[in-house]
Amino acid sequence: MPLLLDYFDPSLNRALDFRTSQTVAHCRRFLAEFLWHASIFLRLYTKLLGIKWELRGVEEIERVQACVVVVNHQSILDILGLFNIWTTLGNLAAVSKKALLWVIPFGPIAWLAGTVFIDRKNGKESMKTLVNVANKSQSHATKLLIFPEGTRNKDILSNGIQPFKKGAFKIAIDNRLPILPLVFSPYYFIDEKTYFFGHGKVIIKALEPISTEDLVSDDVDQLMANTHAIMQKEFQSLTKEIVSTLDDNYSSNVRWRQEILKNNKS
C-alpha cells in the first residue's frame, strides 16, 4: 500500500496509485483540505457521542517537528481523539494495525489522513515499513505516531499501561528522533463487559520530549523503560484527577470498576 507521506516528496511528480494523476502540490492541498473537513466531521461526531476532549501540553508538541510520538492505547476511540487534535500535532503519520483499515468510518478516514497500516503478523515487513516512514519523517519534518503497547489495553484501570514493544524506540534511536509521550486519561465511561457507553471527558496530555541524541542501540531497553514509567505516572495522575470529579453513583453500570474508582478518589 502506498504511503501518503510519499506525496510530500518533491522529487515525485508521477502517479503513485489508482487515485492519483495529480501533482505533489495538488496532493498537499487535498490533504490539508481533507484534514480540515475530517476534523469538523469528527468533532461533531464526538459531540453526538458525548465525549469531551481536552488537550494539554501544546507547548511540548510545538517544541519538536520530526519525532516519534508514543501513545497509550485503550480503544478505537483513540483515533477519534487524535483527529480532534490532528491539526495541532502538525504533519503526522500514524501507525496502526491493518485490521483497523476496514473499520468504518475510522479506517478509511485515517488512511486518507496519512495513517500507515502494518501487518503485525509479519514482523519483518512491518519493521521495514516503519524504517521507511521514519526516514520520510526526518526529511519532511513529520511526526511518526506509534502505539507502543501493540494492542488495545481494555483493562488499563486494573493493570496500568501494558509493557511496550521495542520498535518505536529502536527507530527513534536509529534516526536520532526525540520521543514525544502522549497520554490519554482512562475511558471510565465505557465498559464492554456490561455494554455501557456513557458520556465523559478525556484528557490528552503531551509530556516533555525525550532526546535520543546521545543514545545507541544498547540503550533501547532503558529508553523504553523510562518512557513507560513516565507515561504510567502521568496516567495515574490523570486518572485521579478525572475520577475525583465524578458523582459517586456515576459508575453504577460499570460495577467491576467501582472499587478502582473509589480507590483513586482516596
From TrEMBL:
Which EC numbers characterise this protein's activity in its record?
Answer: 2.3.1.51
**Signal peptide residue numbers:** none
Top-level lineage group: Eukaryota
Database matches in InterPro entries? AGP_acyltrans (IPR004552), Plipid/glycerol_acylTrfase (IPR002123)
Q: Where is the Phospholipid/glycerol acyltransferase domain?
A: 67-187
Q: Does the keyword tRNA-binding apply?
A: no
Q: Which pathway? A: Phospholipid metabolism; CDP-diacylglycerol biosynthesis; CDP-diacylglycerol from sn-glycerol 3-phosphate: step 2/3
| Entry keywords, A to Z | Acyltransferase, Lipid biosynthesis, Lipid metabolism, Membrane, Phospholipid biosynthesis, Phospholipid metabolism, Transferase, Transmembrane, Transmembrane helix
Which spans are transmembrane here? 99-118
* Swiss-Prot/TrEMBL catalytic activity: a 1-acyl-sn-glycero-3-phosphate + an acyl-CoA = a 1,2-diacyl-sn-glycero-3-phosphate + CoA
Per its UniProt record, what PANTHER family does this chain match?
A: 1-ACYL-SN-GLYCEROL-3-PHOSPHATE ACYLTRANSFERASE
Domain notes from UniProt: The HXXXXD motif is essential for acyltransferase activity and may constitute the binding site for the phosphate moiety of the glycerol-3-phosphate.
> What's this protein's family per the entry?
Belongs to the 1-acyl-sn-glycerol-3-phosphate acyltransferase family.
| Stated name of the protein | 1-acyl-sn-glycerol-3-phosphate acyltransferase
- Which species is this record about? Fopius arisanus
